[in-house]
Amino acid sequence: MRAYCEQCHYPINTCVCKHIKNISVPLNVIIIQHPKEATHAKNTARLVTMCIPSACVVLSDNADAMHTLAQSSCKQTTALIYPSENSTALEDLPRTQKQHYRTLILIDGSWKQAFGIVKRSPWLQTLPSYHFSNATPSQYAIRHTSLPHALSTLEAAAHSISCICQRDMSALYDLQTAMQEHWQGPISHRRKT
Ligand SMILES: [Zn+2]
Q1: Hey, which of 28, 71, 171, 172 would disulfide with 21, CB 3.0 to 4.6 Å?
Q2: What residues pack around ion ligand 1 (CB closer than 5 A)?
Q3: What CA–CA distance (Å, rounded) separates 86 from 127?
Q4: For 122, phi and psi rounded to 5 degrees?
Q5: So what's the pLDDT on residue 189?
Q6: What is the pTM assigned to this prediction?
Q7: Ligand 1 centre from 126 Cα, in Å?
Q8: CATH of domain 23-183
Q9: Starting at the edge strand that comes first in sequence, how are the strands of the sheet with 28-33 ordered?
Q10: How far is the CA of 13 from the centre of ligand 1 (A)?
Q11: What's the gap in Å between 182 CA and the centre of ligand 1?
């Protein structure tokens, strides 16, 4: 039987615990996760909650949790990261407006899954939504995506938090790098395609 680390829940030989550094973030970070994502061992949403203890993951098919979230979210203080024809670039947001935000909501799933989640949750459509105009290209190479510039959920969270509250998110990126190297070997050792 494979042994798992009790803290990070990865197999012992891929344990990332020594790379976990707590980051204090003055925002409630909520990740709405499609249930299919929850079963992926290499899902990065869980890494976010390891570094940011106040961050939480809500499964999109958990009707009670989604209802509670809908009731508690306020469109004046909640920013939704979801690119759409109505979204604006987070990087362009004036500082005075950024200061109003207390809650950040991200969606963890493919673009199609995210679209379905927003469609089924009209309250999400009332929140101000943002896309990125200037994010660092993704370093996350484990999971194949057909979208060349798509970020992992961890990268999207890190970029959003650093845009809204200018925090240093390197601990979060480092944790993703550590996890990735466990599964795939260091980037420098990878065969070029
Ligand atoms: Zn561990």
Answers
A1: 171
A2: 5, 7-8, 15, 17
A3: 11
A4: -55, -30
A5: 56
A6: 0.90
A7: 39
A8: 3.40.1280
A9: 56-59, 28-33, 103-108, 78-81, 129-131, 88-89
A10: 9
A11: 12
